[in-house]
Task: inverse folding
């Protein structure tokens, strides 16, 4: 099966099935910064488009700036800011909640069991992490993986909004309640709105929000996992509507294995 093209349809040069690794947004010194050769290759594909290059440079500069952020109390307990990772030209952006233990240690969003499930779900629709961008509402790990506090979300939301402004995604999949409520601006919980796309304006552009259950929550609940799989199946169709690129027929694996979680892994899920 050929993966659905994910890069922007407005620039035919970007219509590649498997986008080179492009972690140009990683803060210097983080593990992600080791992938710059891949990013350079990606940049070469659109070298003739100064607007794209400027946007990418601005995103990388913003990641560097954010790495030193101390706007809220979470700065004191973090190992590092987990800014986000993926394709800076992605049409599809995933937004989760906050880094957990493993994310804080490694500097990437969605590692551990929840990340593995997200990878399998992406694989099921013909995509990899290099085709999309992944970020969180909160960039620093809350102590004990507690829920983010309202004032922490308020302090950090500008970082996410700036990411959206610079990445210019067409489809934003919000994972769980925190991302869904923040980006929709509505109080409706994920149980009510999952799988139902909604139009909104973010970063001065029209964008489609697509709320999904958080993979970490789905790991614990088989019924929720099936719902998440069902909702995920619609992503290629929604992308096709947004980009004008025809969706491939997706052969989604029916069973995403549920690995039993160790206590340490559970701590890293949220
Ligand atoms: S959580 Fe966000 S606002 Fe708070 S210190 Fe980290 S990056 Fe800054």
Result:
């Amino acid at each position: 099966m050929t993966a659905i093209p994910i890069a922007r349809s407005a620039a035919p040069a970007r219509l590649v099935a498997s986008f080179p690794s492009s972690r140009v947004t990683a803060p210097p010194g983080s593990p992600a910064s080791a992938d710059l050769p891949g990013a350079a290759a990606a940049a070469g594909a659109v070298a003739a488009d100064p607007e794209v290059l400027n946007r990418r440079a601005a995103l990388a500069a913003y990641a560097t700036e954010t790495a030193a952020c101390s706007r809220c109390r979470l700065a004191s307990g973090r190992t590092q800011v987990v800014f986000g990772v993926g394709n800076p030209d992605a049409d599809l952006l995933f937004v989760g909640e906050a880094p957990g233990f493993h994310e804080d240690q490694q500097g990437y969003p969605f590692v551990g069991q929840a990340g593995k499930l997200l990878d399998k779900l992406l694989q099921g629709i013909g995509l990899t992490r290099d085709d999309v961008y992944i970020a969180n509402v909160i960039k620093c790990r809350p102590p004990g993986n507690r829920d983010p506090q309202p004032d922490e979300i308020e302090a950090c939301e500008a970082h996410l909004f700036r990411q959206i402004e610079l990445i210019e995604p067409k489809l934003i999949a919000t994972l769980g309640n925190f991302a869904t409520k923040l980006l929709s601006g509505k109080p409706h919980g994920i149980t009510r709105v999952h799988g139902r796309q909604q139009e909104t304006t973010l970063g001065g552009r029209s964008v489609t929000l697509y709320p999904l259950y958080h993979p970490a929550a789905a790991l614990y609940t088989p019924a929720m996992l099936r719902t998440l799989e069902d909702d995920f199946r619609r992503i290629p169709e929604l992308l096709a509507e947004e980009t004008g690129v025809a969706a491939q027929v997706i052969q989604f694996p029916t069973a995403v294995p549920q690995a039993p979680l160790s206590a340490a892994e559970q701590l890293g899920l949220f």
